[in-house]
Predict the 3D structure of the following.
Amino acid sequence: LPQREVTHGYTSANEDFLRKRRRCTAWWYTEVLSVVALRPPTLKRPAGRTPWAIYNRPGRTQPPTRLAKLQATRNGCNSYHFEVWANIFVYMIACGRIVATCVTVACLLFPAGAHGQSSSTSGTPDARAHQLFVRGLTHLGLEEYDEARDAFERALEIAPEQAAVSSALAEAYEGLHDLLTAQLYAAEARRLNPENAAYHRHVAELHVRKQEADEAIAAYEELLDRFPDDESALRSLAQLYASTHQPSRAIQIYQRLIDTAGNRTAYYRQKIGLYEQLGQTKDVIATLETLVRLAPDDPQPRRELAERVYRTGDVSRAIELLEDVYALAPEDVDAVIFLSELYAEEGRDEDREEVLNALYEPPEDASAEGLVKRASALFDARHEQEDARDAATDFLERALADEPEAYEALMMMGQLKLEAEEYSKAAELLSEALDINPREPELWFQSAYAFLEAGEPGRAAEQAEEGLVLFPGEFILIRLAAYSHLEAGSDEDAIERFADAVARLDRRPSAPGDQLSSLHAMLGLLHDRNDTWELAEEHFEKAIAADRSNAVALNNFAFSLAEREKQLDRALDLAEEAVRLEPDQASFLDTLGWIHFKRGDLSEAERWIRAAIETGEASAAVYEHMGDVYERKGDPEKAREYWQQAQEKDPDRESTSERLQQ
């Protein structure tokens, strides 16, 4: 199938087709393996071996082992065939290569000379259990957990003492979110085969999922009693101790990991955080010194160590470390500024000026890549350092002059222009960045937003919709597309996208009430504009229920009712609440006055509409309403005066032109 080269796969239609194709081929694959289970080729089973070796053998997830066994079987050595197909099955299911695997396994399991031969075990209960086990694995690989559970339970009835089946059944129940039952079967698998570390690990992981920290710790401790050098178990146990506020025990386990796995910097970093929790500054410094020795080309440990030793008063040592950082990463803005401050503290003004000049004034022959790298550091520091934004802009302009299609430069420059409210330029730069790399949904959002703010809602809608082709379901793009269609006057498209956004928020367990209210309010406004009153009222009611403080929803619902002269008492309550929430909003004051007009209270109508005009932000509609009030009061000259002002504010307003022609 044709597909876009982006990180988020195919369109929804293609995904559905591929899902069906995978399911179909997986079932064909199952039938091939089922036949193999009932009619195994003429390979002798070594004594003591079982066909469940895939689940009973530690390290079963290592592809090289599977490939080695596969080759051994193909060469005719006496390896039992079930282990071969089970290993290859799980590996290739994980890789998504089901079709190719079917052909490969069929050829490997029926070598030349074996065709037409049958086994004396054909149709035995044990073979039937194997068949059910393979079917269950197929369903498990396709995340069809109900079917997997049924197949494994039937297999377990036939072969109740197989740890592999109990373990697989635990995984099926885990997929069904029945963690208690999953724990029972995982514990049974561990009891049946305690020499398999994977079964111990599964029990512990289920306790973690159920937030049973003490039980998980006990399970990992039991695992480590049998397998003291299991790195994965040690790492998980250390994380558990850290998350349960036992930093001392966690430090001990990380030290065991270092002794077992070697000097891995990640484990030392974990120890630093734990030492800080305990307030053991000397141990923090000692561990950072170790990291400096282990990673001589990494500036990060030196930067952190410089901060710590400076706090202890050792300025000279801090300067020495920061000079190393400067040599390794001259574009590190924070480190350079820190170093300049320490130079100033020590009275080394010339050194201070030198490093600062080097930071903000790179050499004239600097490459585009070097300029972008330095600009990136300044870009990250733009909110903290006063001159960083201007320097980053200068570097990026120079980089783009040399390489106009430098993606990082286009992206950062576009964001800087967006922050500077230069929306047209930002939209142009971000669009160019998307032409090079369309794999970032946030970039699609920023580009569409820039077009919208630049007064091009049509382009904004197009950009957001194109982003949704690549990232269907991306909420920020759906919402922005809705607002863009609204601004562009495409009401049908706007309604569709707002409804989509509401549906996605409703599916969230804890959707933000203010967001949900805003979306319902916009749907109410759109349906009101299209004279679908019943739907408009439904969405306005939902908007207010989701967030009673949504003054826009209160005002728009009130105005809708007033225009239709329906439920005017309710409209008055809504408008008064909106004005209470935002007393200086001209449109809200106008709505309140207009409702009084509809109720026949002309003095109150004049009072509130005049208040709207006095805000200095009144629209043409407000002036038109004031003219209507004076007309009703029998003062046509005053009415024409306000209608004239309304026309000056909006010459294309048809309702005002009609009044003036009376």
